[in-house]
Amino acid sequence: MYITEAWGWWGVIVVFVMSLVWQCSLMASDYWLAFETSEDNAASFRPSFSDFCYLVALRAFLVHIWGLKTAQIFFKQFLNSILHAPMSFFDTTPSGRILSRASSDQTNVDLFLPFFVGLTVAMYITLLSVIIVTCQVAWPSVIAIIPLVVLNIWYR
């Protein structure tokens, strides 16, 4: 619910694609470094890969904007719930407890959820790219990876 609150599934797709582009830029930089440090290409230098830095910054910006927009929606819903609560709620609950709970929940939604959602997406994409590169460089590792995937699914 949190992930799709602000921009729906389109926002999730944009964040996922930007994370995928980020990981592809990391993989491309590794290949570029291996290519440029070979003896044949050591004399020429083309800094055209700085565009990937802008893509990484755009990904981080979009994840935070997405998280803050969702936090704003959460705050409006929370405030609406508090303002429409019956008077008996305020008679039995101290205002300090309400304020403390509201501020801690809002802090969690503002700071931690966008960070951890972005980090989780990035780590899954990193894992996928590590598996792809490992299978590309050492193809016999596919024989070990397939049973590990089956065991992982079975143990869940």
UniProtKB/TrEMBL annotation:
Molecular-function annotations in GO: ABC-type transporter activity; ATP binding
Keyword list, A-Z: ATP-binding, Membrane, Nucleotide-binding, Transmembrane, Transmembrane helix, Transport
Domain of life: Eukaryota
Presence of keyword Transferase: no
Sequence intervals crossing the membrane: 7-28, 48-68, 111-132, 138-155
InterPro entries for this protein: ABC1_TM_dom, ABC1_TM_sf, ABC_transporter_C-like
GO cellular component: membrane
KW Transmembrane helix (keyword) present: yes
Record-annotated ABC transmembrane type-1 domain positions: 57-156
Pfam families according to UniProt: ABC_membrane
Name of protein: ABC transporter C family member 14
